Amino acid sequence: MRKFIARIVVTILVLSLMAGVFVATVPLWADMERVKAYASDAVLEATGKELVLGGSLSFTLFPWLGVEARDVSLRDPASGALLADTRRALIRVRLLALLRQRIEADTLTLDDLSIHVVRYADGTTNWDLPATDEGPAPGGGSALSYTLAGIHVEDASVILDDHVTGREITIRDVTLATGAIAATSPIAVRLSGTATGIPMTETTELDLTASIRPGTPQLRVDVDALRLVLHQTDPQGTPAVLRAETRGVLFWNHAEPALGVQRQTLTVTGRAPALGWNRIEAGLDLQTARFIPGATATVEALEVRGEGSFGSPPVSTEFRLWGEARATPAESKLILRDGGMEVKGLAAEWLRLADADLSWEGDLHLDGANGQARLTLRSATATLDTRGPTATTQFSLGAGTLQADLGSGETVLDVPRVTLSTTAPGLGLKRVDAVLGGPIHGGPSVFRVPRFQADAVFAAAADTAPAIDGTLALRGALNLEGGQLCLPGLASSFDLADTSRRLKATGSLSGDVDIGLDGPRIALSGLSAGAAVDGPTLPATMALTLAGDGHADMAAQTLVAEGLTLQALGVEARVSVRGEHILEGASWSGALVTDRFDPREVLPAAGLRLPPLADPTALSSLSIQGAFSTTPTAANLNTLDIRLDDSRIRGRLDVTHGGPTRADFMLDIDAMDVDRYMPRPGGRDEEAASAVAAGAALVPMLPRDLGVAGRLAVGDLRFQRLHTTDVEARLELAGGVLRIAPLAARMYGGEVTQDIMLDTSGPIPRARFTMDARAIDVAPLLADLQGQARLAGTGTVTVELESTGVDEVEMTASLDGRGAFDLRDGAVKGINIARLLRQAEAAVSGKPLPAGESLQTDFTALTGTFTIDNGQLRNEDLDGKSPLLRVRGRGGANLVTRRLDYRLDTSLVATTEGQGGREVGELREVTIPITFSGTFAEPTYSLDPGRLVVERAKQAVQRKLEERLQRKPGDGLEDQIKQRLLEGLLGR
Q1: d(Cα 580, Cα 557) in Å, to the nearest integer?
Q2: Which tens digits make up the pLDDT trace of 641-653?
Q3: Which of 57, 283, 300, 629 could disulfide-pair with 305, CB 3.0 to 4.6 Å?
Q4: 261 or 495, which is more confident?
Q5: Which residues contact 618 (CB under 8 A, 6 or more apart)?
Q6: Cβ neighbours of residue 487 under 8 Å, at least 6 residues apart?
């Protein structure tokens, strides 16, 4: 602006010179060409520039002595380059005033003025005037007084060509209007125009209203209003407009030279999306400033205020910068003493930052030549509030220095400590205190903190989940270099509680953390973590340790952790994990392997009481290995391999979720003796089992939203003392209905197929059971099941049962069904029916009982069917056959009370010698009843001797009568008498 005004003043001087030349050349009016030549020579001698009068000249004489010139130009005589030109120039001087040695000029008018200013690489310009050694006029005569009514310029243009910066600025549509110009009176100035070529703008509108007060040696300019409007359009075509308005007082000292400023204010408003400014409002106050061209600029009281919205997404704030500033352009130095900066109301929606206050105080030194900056801090603080749950952060530096290398961008903050305090009660964060120890080195790609510590206190809020209470402490160093953030020797300790789940965890973590910020990528090495987790929902305090390495690539969304070692409850496991799409729709895969361990030592550590087992050596060795994979809708456990004592369990498990959960499995067990893992008889667990049998245990209500399907195979199985092989079962659970079908196995020389169904989809559970057992060797089965075999033989059994109820008592009371059995070539042990008959005969006849008979009753076939109705079992068709006996049975049993009510009708059909006895022909074909009663656990049986006497008497009478009738055959009447007599004797 200063150079622009100087160029205008030079133009005025040239035109004034033209007026003086006109007065001196009045005698030459008759020859216009001589006038033009004289004027050009005078201008050349005074300015070193060439005046070209290419158009006509016209004059007036009285009362104004005036000249009007057209097509006037000013050129550089060496290069012929155009400096200025105008289409029309008009100046008039009052003639009578000249006679009194005063110049009283009318308004200087310039139409279509064009000025071209060039600054060369050496700093000189094409408008520089030649040096002159002229001093004051000899004799010290009085100076010529002058007045100029004003200057009026229309449609002017100025071209500023700067070879130093390589920029060319063009100002068009320039309008200049001034008030009266006198040697000591203020000059009112109004200037406007439009500029192009200014950096970061397309066009700039200028509008100046000021008052110039000439003086010696100081020129004063009172700027009433200077308005600048900057226009710009970004690549997307979005317009940007910035408006700047300033006012104040300027002093120009010709002797020094120097520019002084008082009470200068600047206001900037507008928007510039291309610069990331959505809204900007700023103000500058200069109470006193002094500028020496090429030397120093001093601002005794600098204050900059502003508010606005910057960036996209926007950040809004208001700020204030103050201090005493001193700048030395020649040395590229800037000093701000006793200054500081405040930022208030900093808000960013995308950061959820609702309000922030920042401030610092100190001295700032900028050395552009050496590329150094130094900020001496007396204090620095900050407070932050986030949107949503309230959060406040306080930041403090204290006394120290901040030194920056502007060339490399490296910064060193040398303060004893940097503190940071944060609270966010709405997020459950009661307080975080962080301390950074210096000196802290920073730069574009380097940031090093030798030591830091952070302590966090959590206090659960009512609406946060999980609800965390406790403390977390971090210690270590921090290095940021080459886009890599390193936390070497990171150590942490924690004491946290989840109040919603009533869990508490204490422990520590250490290791090296490397984070690549171009992605970023995260690497953990030497990781070591330990924790103790406790809570009422856990059986005991759980001790966990973790060690290993891992890395994550956030750009590729992958995570890999290999060589991890996990210890819990004394069990050590080696784990490897790989994750993909970890930020959205994560999927995981990996493997887990444990060494063999003793579960009898692990379970008590987990707070689980292990009852005395039937086999004291059982559950002493366990190892697990397998591979797993998960997706957002599925989880898979593959190649599962479990070794439990002498058993090996292999298989897989697939679970899908996201909708109704479904599990598919396959388990293959080579051999297992389940009885080894049952509680030892006589213990408290057996009493609990008795309570279950008495109806204390409820039938489990199966989930309706879970689907399960799978296959179970066992090569060799022992359960409840039964031995089965080649067990294979298929299981399906859907809608609260469990179906196990078929359940097939080989056992005791035969095959068994079962179908089991449990339906809990309704209000009352319902069960159904069917079994088909064929070619079963009954004696070893009963020997294994009961410890003794009272029945021998090979048989077939079919059963169909149904029941409802919520416990075993209800289900037994509602049991319905039917069945059939068929045993061949067997024996009933513990009872010798023939011996019972001989005992009865001996009791009646008084004969001695033979000795040495075995306690068993052989049979060739034993068949029958049964029905069950509401827990009452009935059998009406027991049929037993042997070479000696015929057995018929009928009766029942109450399955609820477990009591018997049964009768066997037995008869001898042959000798008893085959049963290890002697001949009892007297009892042959005599039907003898045997009744059974008592409980299932202690059954009793009895035979009635009186009934035997009656049966024998009937048999004797019938035999005698038949003999007599055979010796004396009669007519029909005799046959009738014989028949009636026989019926009477027999009681028929």
Answers
A1: 6
A2: 999 999 999 999 9
A3: 283
A4: 495
A5: 645, 676, 677
A6: 476, 477, 478, 479, 512, 513, 514, 515
How far is Cα 310 from Cα 469, in angstroms, rounded to an integer? 39
What tokens does 327 get? 């700048």
Interatomic CA distance for residues 978 and 986, integer angstroms: 12
Least confident of 340-344, 524-528, 692-696, 949-953: 692-696
Measured between alpha carbons, how far is residue 100 from residues 97, 103, 145, 367, 864 in Å?
5, 9, 10, 58, 160
> Residue 472 corresponds to which amino acid?
L
Compute how many other C-beta atoms are within 10 angstroms of the C-beta atom of residue 405: 15
Q: Distances in Å between the alpha carbon of 668 and those of 625, 652, 678, 711, 955?
A: 15, 9, 21, 8, 66
- Among 160-164, 607-611, 873-877, the range scoring the smallest mean pLDDT is 607-611
Alpha carbon separation from 699 to 226, 231, 872, 919 (Å, rounded) = 92, 82, 21, 57
Residue carrying the six token digits 């609270």? 423
CB-CB contact of 818 with 798 (8 Å): no
Q: Is residue 1 very low, low, confident or very high in pLDDT (cuts 50, 70, 90)?
A: very low
State CA 228 to chain mean position distance.
50
Angle between helices 2-24 and 32-47 (to 10 degrees): 140
Predicted confidence band of residue 988 (pLDDT cuts 50, 70, 90): very low
Residue spans of beta strands (DSSP E) within 392-467: 392-396, 400-405, 411-414, 417-424, 429-437, 440-442, 446-458
Q: Is 949 exposed, middle or buried (0-12, 13-18, 19+ CB in 10 A)?
A: middle
pTM: 0.56
Half-sphere exposure of 774 (CA within 13 A, CB side): 5
